[in-house]
Each structure stands twice: as C-alpha cells, then as structure tokens.
Specification:
The protein is of the alpha+beta class. The protein has one domain. 23% of the residues lie in helices and 48% in strands. The protein is built from three helices and eight strands, in the order H-E-H-H-E-E-E-E-E-E-E. The strands form three sheets. The protein has a four-stranded antiparallel sheet with strand order 2-3-6-7. A hairpin with a 5-residue loop joins strand 6 and strand 7. The protein starts with a helix and ends with a strand.
Length: 143
C-alpha cells in the first residue's frame, strides 16, 4: 500500500512539474542576468533585432511564434432549461434541470507569440530582461 501511495505521489509531482507558466519563464530568464552575451548567443543564437539605447547599452530582441492546432473533437455543453408538467393534483408546475448536449468543436489555430528582450551593458554582460506574449511559458521546476 505504501509503495502504491508513493508511486501516485511521485506521478503527481511529475505532472505538476510539467506545467508551463510565465513565472517559470521568468525564473528561467533570471539565469542570464550577469552572464556574458557569448553565453546568451550559445543558448539563444543571434538576436532577431538589436537596438542601441541613448546610454550606449543595447536591447537584444528575440521573437518566437508558432501555430498551435486546436479543436477537432466533440465536447459537452451544459444548458439550464425547464419543462412544465402537470402534477397529481392537476396543477401545472415547472421543473428546472441541466441538460447536456454533445457539440463539435471545429479545428482552429491558436497563434503563440513570445518576444523576449535582454538589455546588454557596454562590457557585454546581460543586465535585465523583459518578455511579452502568450507563448512565454516554461516549467517552474526546470523539467
């Protein structure tokens, strides 16, 4: 019994570790602060865009996007509805209930976008980062 419980606990932890969040992405990016641009290029490649700030620092911009296919399956939708009926005394009553209907969810494509910016100091060291987009996700556990 203990082995079974331990196995279920382990599976739950692994399952939670696989969840990707923006907080996980932020945590992943913090490892680059204080690192050289050479290390950033090794991991990320060359930036898509480089802009120079007035103070001489640079903003390295990385853009990522992908199409995620969704839909193409049946789902259930729940509706509140009511029906009138006549009781044993001959009075008309209304009965309320929830009805389930099977509906087709057609195929569609969700666009996932993530723009990540690194601010690079004069001595080629990453100072800060920022990111924006619905695709800026990573595991919080580094899995």
């Amino acid at each position: 019994m203990k082995i079974k419980l331990l196995s279920l606990s382990l599976l739950a932890v692994i399952g939670l570790g696989a969840c990707e969040t923006t907080e996980g992405y932020r945590k992943q990016l913090t490892q680059y602060q204080g690192q050289t641009t050479q290390e950033l290029i090794q991991e990320w490649g060359k930036p898509d865009t480089v802009n120079r700030l007035e103070d001489g620092r640079e903003i390295w911009i990385y853009k990522a996007s992908k199409d995620l296919p969704r839909g193409g399956y049946f789902d259930h939708r729940y509706y509140r509805t009511s029906a009138k009926f006549e009781n044993q005394d001959g009075k008309v009553e209304t009965r309320r209930f929830i009805e389930s209907r099977k509906v087709w969810v057609p195929r569609y494509t969700l666009k996932s976008v993530c723009n990540t910016q690194f601010i690079v100091h004069h001595d080629n060291v990453v100072e800060e980062f920022s990111f924006r987009g619905n695709g800026c996700l990573a595991s919080e556990w580094g899995i």
